Fold this protein.
Amino acid sequence: MFENFDAILLARIQFAFTIAFHFIFPAFTIGLASYLAVLNGSYLKTKDKAYLQLFNFWVKIFAITFAMGVVSGITMSYQFGTNWSIFSDIAGPVIGPLMAYEVLTAFFLEAGFLGIMLFGRDRVGPKLHMFACSMVAFGTAISATWILSVNSWMHTPDGYVLAENGQYIPVDWMKVIFTPSFPYRLAHTLTAAYLTTAFIVGGVGAWHLLKGRSDNKGVRTMFSMAMWMIAITAPLQIFLGDLHGLNTLEYQPQKVMAMEGHYESHPEGAPLYLFGIPDDEEQTLKYAVGIPKLSSLILKHDLNAPMAGLDTIPDDEQPPVAIVFWSFRIMVGIGFLMLGAAIVGLWARFRGALYDHKFLHRFMLLMGPSGLVAVLAGWITTEVGRQPYTIWKLLRTEHSASPLDAPAVGASLLAFIIVYFFVFGAGVFYILRLMSKPPKINDMGMNAEEGPIRTAGTTPAQQTQSHHSEMISSIQKEKE
Amino acid sequence: MDVSVWLANSWAFLLALAVFIYVVLDGFDLGLGVLYPFFPKEKDRDLLMNTVAPVWDGNETWLVLGGGGLFAAFPLAYGIIMPALYVPIIAMLLALIFRGVAFEFRWRTKRWKKYWDMAFIGGSTLAAFSQGIALGALLQGIKVDGRAYSGGWWDWLSPFSFLTGLAVIAGYALLGSTWLIMKTEGDVESRARKLAWGFGLATIGFIAIVSLFTPYLETEYYRRWFEMPGLFVTIPMPVIIAFITFYLFKSLNIHHHEYRPFILSILLFALCFIGLGISMYPYIIPTEVTIVEAATPFISQIFMFVGACVLIPIILGYTIYAYWVFRGKVSHDEGYH
């Protein structure tokens, strides 16, 4: 089945496939962990049961997503060695320590406090439980910071020298960690994670509102919080994306040429192509529809600024244009739809119609998974756009792979595809089922009423009872 | 000793420690998967799961540190070992996916619960087996040419690696059953004691066979174990193991000994680990690449070393705290109904 593929192509497909699957989970959990910490903090501060109810609703979804993120992430950490061993040997001295720091400062923090966050509310008291929630949220953000530092170094390497044995050796750690593209990439990606979560939470809220559950305070609260978050982060993200684009233009101009579809140079101002079919063979954008000079205005803030095209780049250094061109358009398109949701949301809120605005609710339901699509499209843009290099201008992708036979890589790729679709498909099904049920006032989180009890450790009959009886008595009070 | 040599060896020690902590911690929770078939009742299976639900995630992170640490401190070894052990590593990763999601998924479905239980059994057993195979394959030697792996993708498979694979399954089941003695009571605990007997005997048997086999894999190993000064360890080692084994089985029969079997099982693992160290040191890939040769440059080593020295005690601190929060026995009749 794989005779016509070479091992490197298979390794690339495998990496793209496994990392795309993996990326979905942290993109959601980074935002969700912070959201849970905020919910828990709001509950402790206001004693409003709606926040606790929401915490217990989302924490179950978080647990499933987190588990899938962890198991798919372990694959990533080993894949550098299994499929890209030459790259690992050459770049290991620079990026290895950064990844080790990710494990030491982030993964252990998340995993260590996750148990207490999920099952420990009645065991450690509210303050320590809040601390555990914060540490999990903090851990996800630290993790993103280190891995984006690694990724940024591969895009804009700095602070290294080439050693005699062919390895890149760090000489200045500050320059290695804080490469020129790192701050932009980090801000853009973290904001993307918060937006992604806000749209999922907002989409779930919209679903329950459409089902006529606007008298459920939890539903109203989650929808309202999500719309605030979107109102703040959607415009911010467009601004950050623009900055990131300018940075890319400075350090990886051919990536921007591919994003814009600029095969030819435009000495007197470049158009912004809205549509076109990139053709790498003929080096033209067919059926191009563009707005004259707008690309120059956006990228150089000058209508007549000259823009170089891919004709200035040797053929064997050009990225595949079509993928980059289209993934970039998908990301940007979703970005502006998100801005639209933010504006409609604000408008509905100021008219006092946030919970009755049918169009907004339908739109938000539709946009629920949009963050995930945008995140993947953006990642494809930046990663395919840096081809043919794994480390920009230093190491080509074809020189990075392990000395493996194609059948080995092909068979493992097939196994990953089958297992991922089956396992993560089931996970997404369980998550959607949890999302479709409205948040309940007597929800007890991971010690849920459905299924067996999940408190592990001692038999804290009196302790768990306290949480339970507190819940019951509060419900009774509300009834009275 | 040269500072960079000292640092490389310290890193090797830290990595070995991380792998050992992993083997013990994930060892007992993977062991539960191996033991699952012996607890057919759903109620008992829930209980087994509940004993590790809050901590398994942290246990598995030590594996990430093992892989990540190898990449960071010895990228050359990482780049050679991973392709050489391609099949067992991929099998382990896929197996860990199944058993990892089983923790969450089995509570979310009634109809599919028994299938996720099977995923837990299969995933745990296959992960243990793959890890054992990887160990055996490393010990029997890996072909290296220049800075890269030069063998085929089935080189890892041999009677010896198959044997070490089975040995690890038995060892993890021993850890799992002694963990259960500590964390459960009544019926489940007494069954765990019986299982610990069986898997204890199997583990000892495997240790004996693997130990006899190993020196004949490489002349270097033989020299170490059977020529002076190696005899100083070769003779006391079996004696100490026999001693621990005796106390392990004794403690299994004494009902109020609840922590002792687990601790003695860990000691048994520790001794095997020391034995491995004696066979391998100073190589990281036996007889091909030494620790010092594979070490990343000094500037990379020292950058991480400072952080690791500060962070690992902190990590151990909150890990112990997490275990302490969920200390004591878990029982069936804990509930809300």
Q: What stands out?
A: Residues 5-326 of chain B form one domain. Chain B touches chain A through 79 residues (CB under 8 Å).
